[in-house]
Every structure is written in structure tokens, then in C-alpha cells.
Amino acid sequence: MPDLHALAVARGTAQTTAAGRSESARYRYVVAACLCVVYTFNFLDRQFLAILAEPVKHSLHLTDTQLGLLTGLMFALFYTIFGIPVAALADRYNRVRIVALACGLWSFCSAACGLAAGFGSLAIARMGVGVGEAGGAAPSYSIISDYFPPEKRGVGLAIFSLGVPFGTMLGAASGGWIAAHYGWRIAFFVLGGAGVLLAPLIPLIVREPARGRLDASGSAAGSTEPAASVFTAIKVFVRSPTLVLTACAAGLTAVIIYGLLSWMPAYLIREEGMSLSQIATSYSFVAGATIGIGTLVGGYLVDKVAPRRPALYALLPGTFVLLGLPFLFGVTAAHSGPMALLFMAGPYILANTYLAPALTVIQNSVAPSQRSAAGAIFLFVLNIIGLGCGPLLIGVASDWFAPTYGVHALRMALLCLAPVFVLVFLVQLAAAWTLKTALPGVGGATLAKE
Fold first, then answer.
1. Number of domains in the chain
2. Interatomic CA distance for residues 75 and 133, integer angstroms
């Protein structure tokens, strides 16, 4: 005789899981859109100093190396160091509240940048922005993964990642316009204040989901697996060739992306004679549109092409980055603003295909209760390499080339990114090999508590 009670429990669990998927289908895009808005402010505040680099440099008497530190390494250190412990909290406590508190903190510190009197005070404010933003992305990855089933997770993460082009476009447009009319300090006050107002709205829109409710190993009540310790998560992450190579490839790609994002506005002003008002119109539109196209293409590839051949999660983004190299030479050879923007579109589209595939590999490779920790480790590697080194590399190179090339030093400094395009392709090839031999959609690693 079959166990009628067991059959009834199984039927009820299946019906509840199906209801959860139906509810998720109606509501998940609202969640993704809301978190995308939060990420837009996250990325806007992160990149705002790069948009205002020229007026800030002249007002506070900064060097290009100091600007590289402020937009890159100094921010990245605090962003990454605090990211992992905050993510560990997010694997145990309410993720939505953590995102809301983080949004309020980074926005307040961004507004405080407008009070800076020199390098030291601006550095302290930027450190605060980094600490606040540490609580934004990784918990959001985990929330989205509990609203989108594995086969649609790439789309959800791609929608969230649209915060990068939206933040770039909004930051360049609003920052350039406000600074041109009212000064760079008012620009920081306005954008930081807007984020402070956004923070309390987040818990009113986004509901905290049960962990793992849409995964095969989850249940109607969500995953009951305890979260791994931070040290266990790091140890297992490092032992997985797939996760390590995916993170390193993403970090090297971010060297290109953050290097260009941090210095293209200054380059267009110095080398091509564009004004802040032109940055607010032409650059903001081209940058936002091209980064958005690249992000969406990456998300499409994740859900439509790569699941049948897991190696494509790495091979396609690596190939696209390599194809962007000739456009870099075009940017530095251009002798007008429109021509430079035209060539800039190449790497902005091609390099930005990397994020959704990388995030999908990371999020599908770990248990639901450990996704925030895995996401934070991924962001640690990505930002220490990309955000920490990209802007600083170009800033140091610009100061180094200045005695020889004078006002054209920044043009030569951008060419230092050329070898990185090739290196990204080689690391993605290695990652593709590990994905080919790993279980499809898994990546060969699970962060389990020891």
C-alpha cells in the first residue's frame, strides 16, 4: 500500500512550489527593476567622481595619480574588504533591509564628497561610499536568484546589471549638467540626497524571499541548509578552478571597463575639447546605450546559447573582449569628439557582455544559502583587480608620460590597456576548458559548511 500521507505531503509541496513559481513570475520583474534602480544609484555614486574629475582636480589641486586612487584603489579596498562580512550577514539575516541600509549609507557619504576641502577629506568620504556600497550588489544577487528559476536567472541578473549603463548615463547627464550650471559640489549634494530618499522605499517594494525556493534542492519553505562560514566559503571558492578563473577573467575585463569609465570623460575634455555640457549630452547617451546593449547581449547569451554548451559562458565574452582591441586604437587615434565616441562604442559594448555570464556561473555553482558569500567573493576579486588597478594604472601612466607627451599624456596612458584585452581572452579560454569538463550549469563547486 502506498503511503497516503507521504503522497499528500509531496502533492502539497509540489502545488506550493508551483504557486511560488507563479507568484514569482508575476512579481519577479518588479523586484529586478527595483533592485536595478538601487544599483543605478550604486554605480552612479561610484562613478560620479570620474564624471566630475576635471573640475574637482582643478578645484582641489589633485594629480592624475590621486584621481586614480580616489576613483579606483582607495574606493575598491573598502568596498571589497567590507563586502564579504556584509554578505555573510546577508546569508543569515534579512537581505532587503541590508540593501536599504547600505543605500542610505553610501548616498550620505556621496553627498559628503561635496564638502571636501582637499585630497584627505575627499578620500575619507570616498571610503565611506565604498563601505556602504559593499552591502548593495551581493545581497541583491541572492535576492534575484530566489525570484528567478535557474533557467531564467541570467535574464534577472542582466536586468539588475542594467544599473551599470543606467548609472553611467544618469551620472554623466545629471552630473555634467549640474556641475556646468551650479558647480561640482552641488552635484554631489543632489545625487547623494536622492539616494538617501530612495533607501526607505526599498523594503516597501521588495519582499524578502525564502532562500532556494525555486531551486531543485529547495522546498516550499526555502532552503534550510545553514550558511557556510566566510572562511569555508573562501577556501572552497579558491579550490574551484572554474570559480577562480571566472572571477579573474571578470576582474581583468573590469580593468578595461573601469579604466575607460574613469578616464574617458577627462580624455574627451582634455584631448577632444569637449565641455561638461557636451559630456552631459553626447557622452552620457553613447556610454549608457552601448553598455546597456552589451549587458543585455550577455544576458541573452546566458539563457539562449550557453546552457547547451557551458564553455560558452567564458568563450563568448572572451572573444568579444578581444574583438574590442582595435577600437581602443581607434579611440586614441581619433582627432574629434564624435569620432572618439564612435570608436568608444566598440569596447563599451563588447567588454560589457561578460557580467551576466559570470554572475550566472557563480550563482548556479553554489547552494542557495551561500549565494551572497559567493557573490561577495566574486566581487572582491573583480573589484580589487578591476576597480583597484584600472583607474590607478591609467592615472599613474598619465603622470609618467606627462614630461614627454605633455597634454597628450592621457592619450598614451589609455594604450596601456591594450595588453589586458589579450590577457582577458587567454584567461577566458582557461575558464572555458574548466566549464567544459564541469557539470553543465553547476561549475563544479558547492560551498558547503564543514
1. 1
2. 10
